[in-house]
Amino acid sequence: MTDGLVTRDLTLGYGAKPIVTGMDLTIPPGRFTVLAGPNGSGKSTLLRALAGTMRPRGGQVLLDGASVPAMAARDLARRVGILPQSPQAPEGMIVADLVRMGRFPHRGLLSRWSDKDEAAVTEAFRLTRTADLRDQPLDQLSGGQRQRAWIAMVLAQRSRIVLLDEPTTFLDLAHQIEVLHLIEDLVHAGRTVVAVLHDLNQAARHADHLILLDAGRIAAEGAPADVLTPQNVAQVFGVNVSILQDPETGRAMCIPKAR
C-alpha cells in the first residue's frame, strides 16, 4: 500500500484543454511542500485534485493507497483540509462560528457539540493565535488576521494533510511572514502541508520540498537548494538569476540579473 498522498499518471483539464499531463508525484509526509511555477502551470489545478474537489481525466490520486475521488466527502475531509484562494463567508459571520465550521466532517446532522469538538476548536485558536479574535466579525479583520482565521477553520478539521492555495497572496510582508511561520509550526506539530506560493525566496527559506511546475509537468523537485538553480529558473520562468546564500538562514535565494 502506498503511504501518504500521491498521483500516478495524473491528467487534469478544463473543457478540451489539458492543464496537467501524466504527472507522477509523491507528497513527503510531515513536511512543508511548495508548488511553484508561472501562471497557468497547473499549481491550483493540481491542489484541487489532491483535495478531491476536481476529478482526474486520467490517472489516479491516492491517499494511503485509496482513490481520493472515490472517497466519501466527509471521510476525505477528516483526512485532508483545503483552503482555496479568496474563500468567502456570509456577511457578519464571527470568527468563532467560522472556525466551528471546520468540525462539520466529524458531526452528524443532529449531533450535539462535543468536548472533542470544543478541544479541536480551542487547539485551532491556539495554533493560529486567534483566540482574541473569536468574537470579531470576519469582515472587520485585517488581511493577515482573516487568513489566520480561515486557516484555523481548516485546522479544526484535525486533518493530517493541509492544502493551502496562495495563502500569502494580497498580504503585506509582515502578514506573509506570520502565515509562513504558522505553516512551519503546523509541520513541527506533525501536519503535512502543501501550499502554492509565487515567491521563490519565501519557498526557499521555508519549504522542505519544492516542486517547480511548467506547462502541467514537473520541471524539477526536491530540496529547495537542489531545485533553485539558474538553469531551472531560466527554463521555467524565463528569467536569468544568480543563486546566493541567504545570510539569515544559509539557504538558497534568487536574485534576478540586471538587464
Automatic annotation (TrEMBL):
GO cellular component: plasma membrane
Main location: membrane
Matches recorded under Gene3D superfamilies: P-loop containing nucleotide triphosphate hydrolases (3.40.50.300)
A molecular function (GO) term: ATP hydrolysis activity
A single GO BP: iron ion transport
The keyword Iron belongs to this UniProt entry's keyword annotation: yes
Keywords: ATP-binding, Cell membrane, Ion transport, Iron, Iron transport, Membrane, Nucleotide-binding, Transport
Family: Belongs to the ABC transporter superfamily.
Protein name: ABC transporter ATP-binding protein
Source species of the chain: Paracoccus caeni
